[in-house]
Structures are given as structure tokens and as C-alpha cells.
Amino acid sequence: MLSVGGYTPSRPGAKRLEGDDPHHEGPKEVTTDEFFRGKKIALFAVPGAFTPACSQRHLPGYVDKASDIKSKGVDEVACVAVNDAAVMTAWGKDQKTEGKVTMLADGSGDFARALGLELDLTRAGLGTRSKRYSMLVDNGVVKSLNVEEQPGQVDVSSAETMLRAL
After folding, report:
1. Which position among 49, 54, 80, 81 bears the catalytic label?
2. Is 77 exposed, middle or buried (0-12, 13-18, 19+ CB in 10 A)?
3. I need a surface site. Which of 10, 81, 92, 132 has the fewest CB within 10 A?
């Protein structure tokens, strides 16, 4: 599993979702090297878009606190989930994330597996997802990593906890 002081694994696969620009060509694949290079990123992961804890507490907390987090020297706040790009785009629009939180689709769970943070929710009919966590990454180096014990918890990975740690 990924640990503090380690580097984010160099992988392709996540889809970076852009805004509602009519000239936008759709989601763009981005490698972790490209995404984290030269920036300080507050990244958080959720088990699934549109699920109760994710939609009622986790993502809204980061949307509300995005400017406060960025004022502490963070270049970008991003959310990743094992969902496809269409679902993440719809969820971002529903949650009004544009300009606040970058939405990333880890459609096949490759990023979650590379981090060692996959979560088997097959019994709940959800397949393999990501554990709920937050991490602060500075130029590819993990500065903090906060993994929730239970998928429905939003405590150590919350926007408030991230903000207090900055």
C-alpha cells in the first residue's frame, strides 16, 4: 500500500474531466506523473459517485472548502472514484464542482489497485471500488494519507481534516 513519503505510482488510466466547454473533446487520459508534476494536490477518493456518504458529506465538504484549501498553498483539489467518465461528469455537474474540485474517473480501478487502496464491495453489488481516503501530494510525493476504516465514514478523509492539516 502507498505510504507517506512515497511517490504516487507512475500509471496511465485516470480520466481528467473538463468543464462544459462546447469545444471540449471529452475526458482526457492523464498519467499520475502528468497530474501530480510540479503541483501540490489535495486528492480524495470515494467508493462511488451518487452514493449517500459521498454525495451528502464527502464531496460537498471539499466543494465548500476548496477555496480555503487552495488558500493554504494547494494548487488543485481533486476527487477520484471507480466510476466511468460519464458518471463522474454527471456527478460533478450535480454537485457544482466546476472551478472547485477536479473530477477524475478511475473507470477500471487501476489507480486504486496501484495504490493498494482497492475495496471489494462485491457483496453489496458494487464490485471492486476504492477505499475512502484523502492524501496531500506534493510534486508526486505523498505528504499525508488518511484512509477511513469503514466505507461510510467521512472523518479522517474529510475536507475539514485536510484543512486542519495544512
Report:
1. 54
2. buried
3. 10
